UniProtKB/TrEMBL annotation:
Presence of keyword Glycoprotein: no
GO MF term (any one): transmembrane transporter activity
PANTHER family linked to this entry: MAJOR FACILITATOR SUPERFAMILY PROTEIN, MFS PERMEASE
Organism of this sequence: Humitalea rosea
InterPro entries cross-referenced by the UniProt entry: MFS, MFS_dom, MFS_trans_sf
Highest taxon, organism lineage: Bacteria
TM region positions: 12-41, 47-69, 76-95, 101-121, 133-152, 172-191, 212-231, 243-264, 276-296, 302-326, 338-358, 364-384
Record-given protein name: Putative MFS family arabinose efflux permease
Pfam families, per database record: MFS_1
Alphabetical UniProt keywords: Membrane, Transmembrane, Transmembrane helix
Residue ranges of domain Major facilitator superfamily (MFS) profile in the record: 204-393
Length: 393
C-alpha cells in the first residue's frame, strides 16, 4: 500500500468515527424523542413534533453548511455542527428538567443543525478518497452508524434513570459529551481545503434539469422519508401494545444496526452490480417491511420488520449518494449537496410530523401501507432514468 493510500484510509477511518459519534446522539433521540414528546405534550398528536422540528432544522442546515464549507472548509463546518449538537442535547435536558414541552422542542433546532451538518461526513469521505475507492469510502463512513446503533440505544437504557425524577435527563447530559470527542478526532483528520472560488455559481435550477441529480435526490428523499415515517412511530406503537422502554430501545437498536452495518459491503455491491440495482433491492426490502409490519405486532414482528426497513434504507440511500457524487462537477459540489439535503431532509421533516399525525388518526397499518406507492415511484423513476441513459443499466 502506498503512502497516499495509507493517508486516505486513515482519513476515512477518522470520518467513520466522527459519523458514529454524530449518529449515536440521533439514534438515542429516536429511541427517546417520541416518548418524551408524548409525556410532555398535552395534545398527543404532537408527540413527534420535536423530531419534525429537528428534521426541519436539519434541512435548513444545508444552507449555512454550504456557505461555511465553501468559504472556510469542511473542518470549520464540522466544528460548527459539533457545537450545535452539544447545545441541542443540553436544551433537551433543560426541557425535561422544567417539564416544558416547548423548551424541549427548542432543543431540536440546534440538534437538527448539528445533525444536518454531520450528514456531510459522507461527502467529505468522497472527497478524500480516490475515484475508484469512492463508493467504498462513502459506504464505510455511513457504516459509522453501526457503533451509533449499539451505543445510542444502550446509552438510553443505562442512563435513563441517572437523574432520579427526571427520566432521560441524564442521557442527554451524556450525549452532550460526544460532539466534544468528535472535535478531538477532527483535529487529526486531513481534509482537503475548499476549492478556489470562481465567482460564478451554477443556478440551483440547473441541477433540477439534470436527470442524474433528480434521480439521486428523489431516491434519497424517498429512502430517508419513508424510513423515518415508520421508525418515528415505532416506539409509540410498541408503547400502545404494552412494551416497555427497554423493548422499544432494543428494536430501534436492531433497526439502526441494520441501517449501518451493510455499509461495510454496500460499496462493493454497488461496484459489482451498479447503484440502480442496489436501489431496487432496497425498495424490495422496504416492501418486505410493510408485509411484516401489517401481519402482526409481536416483538418478533417489530424486530424483523425494522431490520428489513434498515437494510432497505441502507441500500437505497447509499445508492442515491453514489449517484449524486457523479451528478456535479467538483466546483459545484457544495451547492449540489445543499440542494440535495434541502430536498431529502425537507421530506424527512414532513414525514416526522406526519408520522405522529397518521399514527394517531389512521393507525399503524395505514401508516405503513403509505410506503408501498413510494417504493413503486422509485422503481418507475429508475426505469425512466435507464431509458434516458441505457448504459446505466
Amino acid at each position: 500500500m502506498t503512502e497516499p493510500d495509507r493517508h486516505m484510509l486513515r482519513n476515512v477511518r477518522l470520518l467513520f468515527l466522527c459519523q458514529a459519534l454524530q449518529n449515536a446522539a440521533v439514534v438515542g433521540q429516536v429511541a427517546m424523542g417520541s416518548l418524551i414528546g408524548f409525556a410532555l405534550a398535552s395534545d398527543k398528536t404532537l408527540a413527534t413534533l420535536p423530531m419534525a422540528i429537528q428534521m426541519l432544522a436539519t434541512m435548513a442546515a444545508s444552507i449555512p453548511a454550504s456557505m461555511v464549507f465553501a468559504r472556510l472548509g469542511r473542518r470549520a463546518g464540522f466544528t460548527l455542527g459539533a457545537f450545535g449538537s452539544m447545545a441541542g442535547s443540553l436544551i433537551f435536558a433543560a426541557g425535561i428538567w422544567q417539564g416544558d414541552f416547548w423548551l424541549y422542542c427548542l432543543g431540536a433546532v440546534p440538534a437538527g443543525l448539528g445533525f444536518g451538518i454531520g450528514q456531510h461526513y459522507r461527502f467529505a469521505a468522497a472527497e478524500v478518497a480516490t475515484p475508484a475507492y469512492r463508493p467504498r469510502a462513502v459506504s464505510l463512513v455511513m457504516a459509522g452508524g453501526v457503533l451509533a446503533a449499539v451505543a445510542g440505544p444502550e446509552l438510553v437504557k443505562q442512563t435513563r434513570d441517572l437523574m432520579p425524577g427526571f427520566l432521560f435527563m441524564g442521557t442527554y447530559l451524556i450525549l452532550a459529551t460526544l460532539p466534544a470527542i468528535c472535535l478531538v478526532l477532527l483535529s487529526f483528520a486531513e481534509i482537503p481545503p475548499p476549492p478556489p472560488r470562481t465567482g460564478v455559481s451554477t443556478p440551483l435550477s440547473a441541477f433540477l434539469r439534470r436527470p442524474a441529480f433528480v434521480t439521486a435526490a428523489v431516491t434519497g428523499a424517498i429512502a430517508y422519508g419513508t424510513m423515518n415515517l415508520a421508525m418515528t412511530s415505532t416506539p409509540l406503537e410498541m408503547l400502545a401494545c404494552g412494551f416497555g422502554i427497554s423493548a422499544s430501545s432494543t428494536v430501534i437498536q436492531a433497526h439502526a444496526v441494520a441501517m449501518f452495518l451493510p455499509g461495510f459491503w454496500t460499496g462493493r455491491l454497488i461496484l459489482r452490480f451498479g447503484a440502480l440495482r442496489i436501489i431496487v433491492a432496497g425498495a424490495l426490502l422496504n416492501t418486505a417491511f410493510v408485509a411484516v409490519a401489517v401481519s402482526g405486532e409481536t416483538f418478533t414482528h417489530f424486530v424483523l420488520g425494522l431490520v428489513c426497513l434498515g437494510l432497505g434504507w441502507n441500500f437505497m440511500f447509499t445508492g442515491a449518494t453514489t449517484l449524486l457524487a457523479a451528478a456535479y462537477a467538483p466546483a459545484e459540489r457544495f451547492r449540489a449537496q445543499m440542494l440535495n439535503d434541502l430536498i431529502v431532509f425537507g421530506t424527512v421533516a414532513c414525514t416526522a410530523f406526519g408520522s405522529g399525525f397518521l399514527h394517531a388518526q389512521a393507525g399503524w397499518v395505514v401508516l405503513n401501507l403509505v410506503l408501498l406507492p413510494a417504493m413503486a415511484a422509485v422503481v418507475l423513476m429508475l426505469v425512466w432514468r435507464i431509458r434516458r441513459a441505457p448504459a446505466l443499466a
